[in-house]
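ARCHIVE CARD
CATEGORY: sequence design from structure
SOURCE FIELD: tokenized fold
FIELD CONTENT:
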């Protein structure tokens, strides 16, 4: 192993920079040449590849986003595109790649590594925490903390006006941001794709709450929930409970930005280091995660989107603590 490349791909997540830094510094420590690829797979195709030094990653551990930029790349879905990417990597004699991204990026890495002789290591970088083989993903903790901060503020104004707020959080097809932020802010209901919720039952409960003068209500909805998101939930509540002052807030892209939390910086640093060590040991085509505080390798094809079972006890906790 002499020359390795690192890239960030797909949706951005806070902590990606910390992971890039760890890959670069660990590589240089082992006297490897480390190359940065700009704009994910697109940069592999356009040969937007440059050698990085230790100081290229100075002062970035605390920054959200990614200095390597990220993008989605249509051509990479096709063999011809991946071949072009391979040829560009060969020009730099790259013999190992670290891909920081989500399950889509791992699908791409998996195909690439089956077709060509450059080993790939995936690191889970997504705010959604929708990846198997790791207890958390780089960016999740930061996104949840951003959501909590915002929801706490909404609660203040909800309280002042006795309003009901339906708040939509991100997470694509996963409900973890909703579940964690909902429990942490004392929401009465958390709606997420992993569990069907009847809006009618929520309406009945809201009417009961009103009778006992519980006037502040927070409902957290995951964007991927099958009810159709916060606007739809609020529309149905307004229809049945016109007396309630119901408002909607969609938190949106605020959840992707900001300085990563301690937990995300640690996870990113540990995984970036582990990625280089794995390449040096000849470990190929795995995603590296942390499970029960231990580094764990998962074959790239097994790391794709995990519709994890969520323990029903969590919903009991939501219900009991908000009653
Ligand atoms: P994420 O990594 O956040 O899940 P995407 O699903 O957009 O994001 O995937 C990022 C990129 O990975 C895509 O734009 C594409 O270049 C590549 N990719 C995703 N799925 C595949 C696939 N099945 N085959 C080849 N490349 C893929």
């Amino acid at each position: 192993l002499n020359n390795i490349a690192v890239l960030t791909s797909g949706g951005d997540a806070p902590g990606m920079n910390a992971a890039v830094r760890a890959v670069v510094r660990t590589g240089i420590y082992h006297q490897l040449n480390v190359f940065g690829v700009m704009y994910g797979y697109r940069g592999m195709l356009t040969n937007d590849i440059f050698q990085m030094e230790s100081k290229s990653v100075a002062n970035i551990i605390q920054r959200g986003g990614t200095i390597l930029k990220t993008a989605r790349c249509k051509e990479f879905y096709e063999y011809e595109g991946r071949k072009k990417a391979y040829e560009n990597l060969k020009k730099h004699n790259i013999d190992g790649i670290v891909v920081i991204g989500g399950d889509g990026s791992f699908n791409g890495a998996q195909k690439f590594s089956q077709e060509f002789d450059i080993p790939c290591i995936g690191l889970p970088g997504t705010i959604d925490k929708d990846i198997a083989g790791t207890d958390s993903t780089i960016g999740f903790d930061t996104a949840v903390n951003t959501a909590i901060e915002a929801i706490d503020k909404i609660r203040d104004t909800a309280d002042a006006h006795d309003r009901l707020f339906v708040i939509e959080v991100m997470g694509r097809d996963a409900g973890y941001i909703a579940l964690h932020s909902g429990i942490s802010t004392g929401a009465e209901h958390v709606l997420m794709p992993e569990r069907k919720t009847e809006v009618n039952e929520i309406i009945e409960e809201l009417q009961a709450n009103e009778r006992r003068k519980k006037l502040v209500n927070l409902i957290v909805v995951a964007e991927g929930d099958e009810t159709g998101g916060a606007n739809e939930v609020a529309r149905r509540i307004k229809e049945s409970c016109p007396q309630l002052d119901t408002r909607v807030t969609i938190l949106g892209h605020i959840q992707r930005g900001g300085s990563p939390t301690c937990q995300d910086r640690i996870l990113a640093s540990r995984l970036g280091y582990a990625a280089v060590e794995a390449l040096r040991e000849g470990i190929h085509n795995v995603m590296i995660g942390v499970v029960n505080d231990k580094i764990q390798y998962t074959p790239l094809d097994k790391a794709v989107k995990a519709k994890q079972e969520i323990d029903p006890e969590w919903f009991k906790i939501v219900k009991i603590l908000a009653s």
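CARD ANNOTATION: The first helix runs from residue 16 to 29. The first strand starts at residue 3 and ends at 8.
SHELF: design records, drawer C
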